[in-house]
Design brief:
Helices cover 70% and strands 3% of the residues. The chain is mostly helical and 598 residues long. The termini are far apart.
Length: 598
């Protein structure tokens, strides 16, 4: 029992400490600066997209935080007023599951409406993917020929195949069909995240009914329904695997193992970085097996069966990933008549992720294509050259850990995580439409409406980071390690893209996984504030006053220390080069669209 408890405490402390440090750094980025994709001029006088940063006001974010606290307190009182029907009161005979399904249909309807009024054609990489899918329908598989797209990026064959198959359902003349699939996938994602919140915090029965509206109010991922790139279908399958793993841990029913295996296999076919979900689930299954082995259960056979099942869960998911990817590869080879090429080595992507790029640190800059071409399309030689380049980069960062190392990773973090829109509106701009877009919709995409929305999302992003910090504080003594399943996926995504190719469109799925934790944090914060207010109003002492007061004092002291440290450190050059990023007045004018004529 002691060994089991020590392992839990060690793992729990390490995970929560690492999450606290990362979320706190992202929180500082959010209150001191805001990132966005602006425009710059190169040496040839051509415009190109570049990440710019403008200063932000921590005091404004504090005011918004206090206003939200008051709003949460009012809503909490309204929902729990005396005489309200049922526990929590407001839903009456409408059950939580029916409420979530109702929200899913409403949300899907909104998504269909948005697609109908925009009908944006694919752009950038999605345009390449969809064009290749249409080429396949025409019997043209030249994308596999030397130097072409799938020759270099064969791992994209899965998503091309997915859209190729969809053309049989929706036809080749319209791209609205795949966007409708995105809407369905997003509704499923939000439903599963709400149900996962119920699994995380079983004692809080209404938490799932709070998580779904919060997800609906956060717009960036919603705008990705027009982005045909496999992000949403892949995430839906990956979150499905996470949910089925949670159901297995809750019920120990084997059918969830098969479902999770299939889901994670399909997810990795659509988006290879969904392997991060696999690693996170495997970590929890290993912990579960170890926890069962160290438990004091008397039934030895039952004990052995359960820990072997958890280990078998990992193996079955590995088989699912291998099986789905192998089946996809064999089918594509049969369909195209081409053997699957080796493609560019993965190490090249990590090297590119540690280089500067026009749009932002770690973004695509053509390095992987250049090193592959220079190596004569020999993956082994390209890997050797990439390793040599990686050593040079690391040596340079070690020689100048602040200027070359810390500042680079700070800029890369801001590029990926500190744009409150997660470049969702940027992904819709400059794309052709099959309909005449109304001025209101055009304003939301690329006008004054987009500025207003960006400002609102800027405050929302800060509130989400703050809510996560509140959750980590109030749940620091939690005995339930499994409530961190979604947070560990986020942790893996953050660490992976810290060294891999950068992009806010890559990190947005991991950010969404943390919204339930923010909701829980504000729920706990609101409850603590109201208990203190009730005690003060009654001039009495609640039974748990000492415990409650201790938590409140500790939290207030933490905020005071953070405020004093920020005032002290905020004057340093390093702080301005890493956290309080500022690209000058021209960047401010671009952000607020004050230089349209230029």
């Amino acid at each position: 029992m002691n060994g089991r408890w020590h392992i839990y405490r060690t793992v729990n402390f390490m995970l929560r400490s690492l999450l606290t440090v990362i979320v706190f750094l992202l929180f500082l980025h959010s209150i001191f600066s805001t990132s966005f994709i602006g425009r710059a001029v190169n040496a040839n006088g051509d415009l190109y997209g570049k990440t710019l940063n403008i200063p932000d006001s921590p005091w404004k974010h504090l005011i918004v935080f206090l206003l939200l606290t008051v709003l949460c307190a009012v809503v909490y009182r309204l929902f729990h007023r005396p005489g309200a029907r049922g526990e929590g009161g407001v839903f009456g005979r409408l059950s939580e599951n029916r409420f979530l399904l109702l929200l899913s249909f409403i949300f899907a309807g909104i998504g269909v409406f948005w697609i109908a009024v925009t009908q944006l054609s694919p752009g950038s990489d999605p345009a390449k993917i969809y064009a290749i899918a249409l080429q396949w329908r025409a019997g043209d598989f030249s994308a596999f020929e030397e130097g072409n797209y799938l020759f270099s990026y064969p791992f994209q064959s899965g998503i091309v195949l997915f859209y190729y198959l969809l053309t049989f359902l929706f036809g080749t003349e319209s791209y609205v069909g795949p966007q409708l699939i995105n809407v369905a996938a997003l509704a499923v994602i939000y439903l599963l995240l709400s149900l996962l919140a119920r699994f995380y915090w079983k004692e809080d029965r209404k938490i799932s009914c709070m998580v779904y509206p919060a997800l609906m109010c956060w717009a960036p991922l919603f705008f990705y329904v027009t982005y045909i790139y496999g992000i949403l279908p892949g995430m839906a399958c990956a979150v499905g695997a996470l949910y089925l793993a949670a159901r297995y841990l809750e019920t120990r029913r084997y059918r969830y193992m098969a479902g999770a295996s299939l889901c994670i296999g399909i997810a990795t076919v659509l988006k290879m970085n969904c392997l991060i979900y696999l690693v996170a689930i495997a970590c929890f299954m290993l912990y579960d097996a170890l926890d069962i082995v160290l438990s004091d259960r008397k039934n030895a056979k039952d004990k052995q069966r359960k820990w072997l099942s958890s280990v078998g869960f990992i193996l079955l998911m590995g088989v699912g990933v291998w099986g789905c990817n192998t089946a996809t590869e064999l089918f594509v080879e049969h369909l195209s008549g081409y053997a699957m090429p080796e493609g560019e080595p993965m190490i090249s992507w990590a090297v590119m992720g540690l280089q500067e790029a026009p749009k932002g640190p770690g973004d695509y800059n053509g390095y992987i294509g250049e090193v592959y071409t220079a190596s004569g399309y020999d993956a082994g030689r390209a890997a050797e050259q990439s390793l040599a380049d990686l050593r040079k980069i690391l040596d340079r960062m070690l020689d100048e850990p602040i200027g070359e190392g810390l500042c680079f990773f700070a800029g890369k973090t801001a590029y990926q995580w500190n744009d409150p829109t997660f470049i969702s509106m940027e992904r819709m701009r400059n794309r052709k439409s099959a309909v005449e877009i109304s001025p209101l919709v055009r304003s939301v995409i690329d006008g004054r409406g987009s500025v207003v929305l960006s400002v609102l999302l800027n405050y929302a992003q800060t509130l989400i980071w703050a809510g996560i910090l509140l959750y980590l504080f109030f749940s620091r003594n939690s005995r339930n390690l499994y409530e961190l399943m979604g947070a560990v996926v986020f942790l893996g995504g953050y660490l992976f893209h810290l060294v891999w190719e950068a992009g806010a469109s890559y990190t947005i799925p991991y950010f969404v996984l943390m919204i339930p934790y923010a909701v829980k944090g504000f729920r706990d914060w609101t409850g603590a504030i109201l208990r203190i207010a009730d005690a003060a109003r009654r001039h009495g002492m609640p039974a748990d006053r000492s415990k409650m007061t201790g938590k409140t004092v500790l939290l207030a002291a933490a905020f005071l220390v953070i405020a004093l440290a920020a005032l002290r450190v905020g004057r340093s050059r390093t702080f301005h080069n890493t956290i309080a990023l500022d690209d000058g007045q021209e960047a401010v004018q671009q952000y607020y669209h004050r230089a349209e004529s230029d």
